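User: I'm putting together notes for a lab meeting next week and I want to include a structural view of one of the chains we've been expressing. I don't have a solved structure, so I'd like a prediction I can at least talk through. The sequence is below, exactly as it appears in our construct file.
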Amino acid sequence: MQGPRDSGDLNAADEVVRVNLGALLIPADSGVDVQVQADQVAGTVSQVNLVIADAAVQVQPYAAPRSGGLWSQIRQELVKSIEDSGGQVQQVQGSFGDELLAQVPSEQGRQSVRFAGVDGPRWFLRLVFLGKACQPGPAATRLETVVRSLVVDRGDAAMPPRAPLPMTLPVEATTALESEPRTLTLPKRGPEITEIR
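Assistant: Thanks for the context. Below is the predicted structure for the 197-residue chain, given as structure tokens.
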């Protein structure tokens, strides 16, 4: 199964119901929790996490040049940044091609992190796998499957490379931020889920 896909690749036969976060469309019945960090007033989303019990992946879409190749540049910068901070990193071949496995300094000592990237048409998707998703196994496979089912909507606006693509909460979900101003777990089914055609 290939993916993530570009919104331009969807057609009328596509009947998957998705949570619409603007630049990122997530299948509603993915079987994982969708947690977002969002601004209470503006309803803008700064970070999306796909979570299961002992693993997670942070997903962030960015604008990219038409020529692609942004992941290659970012990968080199990540290696330098991790090594400069006292961490350890190695490049490996993973499910998404060239990936980085790292041990980064944290309050608990060192934390395992797996970085991957997907170059799309004028967009780039950065993936940060945490917990058991750092190593091959059921948790990693499950989250990778969900990531491959994502759809990125780049939009037509001119944006410089590396600019975060705008993500927003569905209107109905913003009221839930009143009790939880920074992190919100979106339900798998509900009025905020829209079908993309």
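A couple of points you could mention at the meeting. The first helix runs from residue 70 to 84. The chain has one domain: 5-186.

User: Perfect, that's what I needed.
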